[in-house]
Amino acid sequence: MIIDAVPRYRQIAAEVWRPLLVLFVWDVIVTVTYYVLPFKAPSLPLTLFGSALALFLGFRSTSAYERWWEGRGLWGLMINASRSLSRAARSFLPDEEARDLQRAIILRQITYVNVLRCQLRKQDPRAEALRYLSPDEAAPSLERLNVANGILDGTGRRVDQARQAGWIDTIQQASIERVLIDIANAQGGMERLKNTPLPNQYRFFPEFFARLFCILLPIGLVETLGFATPIGSTVAGLMFLAVLKIGDDLVDPFANTVHDVPLTAMCRTVEIDLLQALGEQAPDPVKPEKGILW
Question: Second label for 52, Cα 20 to 30 Å away, from 25, 122, 174, 274?
């Protein structure tokens, strides 16, 4: 996630220079053709067309941002649920003989959020699964297609072991289970966002009409702007292409790009909070790199 208050002009240029260059060349071709082979520019309803296109692109960008913000909200719920699970484990399992189980539940939750981060970013979760879990403990989860869900199931089984051992009662088990359900619901929402793209109409038609508008724009402006048509038309096209790019950047909040929800930083927050709750040494928070928080 970009956190700089000042726009990153170099990155913006890197993302849009190719379509802008093509657009500028087309504008030059139209302008030169107009002066070399004079033609009557057709009266195009560019104002009406541009207004409709702006509303269309704005609606698409709003839909993409809602997806991004929902992803951020789900991870906020995940952080809170992780803290609640840690607090419940420490409160319900205070006895010395249950200390290992208490610690195992908390470390499994740290592993769970980091594995879920890797899954959402299409990365191999094996290294994260083995960072706090032994190979034998992580093996059943790593054999499953959804490794994060396997780790969560294992946590539920350990809570049941605590009940069978008499360390917690059924009411306390139900309380912890409600937290695990909240965690599972948050994961399901994240997977829905990851695996369900915007409908094809939201992706195809805005891009098609934006590019069509950029093609028609210099034809409709050349009589008015003359030699300034390439500059004026390119700047106007830039605005529409920028709005189009915003929607592309935000539609997948877990794409592991600079526009991503900062999953690494949030997972580190969970790790710090839960390790400090155990009284153990915690790593430093994730710091921005060149204005980007990963």
Answer: 25
Mean pLDDT for the chain overall: 83
- Give me the phi and psi of 2, to 5 degrees please: -80, 125
Banded model confidence at residue 79, pLDDT cuts 50, 70, 90 = very high
Let me know the angle formed at the C-alpha of 81 by 79 and 194, rounded to the nearest 5 degrees.
65
Phi-psi region of 166 (alpha: psi -120 to 50; beta: other; left: phi over 0): left
- For residue 113, which of 149, 142, 87 has the smallest C-alpha distance? 149
Cα–Cα distance, 213 to 283 (Å, whole number): 51
Query: CA nearest 270: which of 80, 139, 55?
Result: 80
**Residue 268 amino acid letter:** R
SS3 289: strand
Could you give the CA distance from residue 58 to residue 65 in angstroms, rounded to a whole number?
A: 10
Helices 170-195 & 46-92, crossing angle to 10 degrees? 160
Q: What is the pLDDT of residues 212-262, one digit of tens each?
A: 888 888 887 777 777 787 888 888 887 878 777 777 778 888 888 877 888
- Tokens (6 digits) for 78: 């995940």
CA distance 246 to 267: 26
DSSP state of 227: G
- For residue 229, how many C-alpha atoms fall within 13 Å in the half-sphere facing its CB? 27
Q: Which two tokens stand for residue 116?
A: 């879920």
Q: Which of 29-33, 163-167, 185-189 has the highest mean pLDDT?
A: 185-189
Q: What number of other Cβ atoms are within 10 A of residue 188's Cβ?
A: 12
DSSP, collapsed to helix, strand or coil, labels residue 181 as helix
Quick one: pLDDT band at residue 11, thresholds 50, 70, 90? low
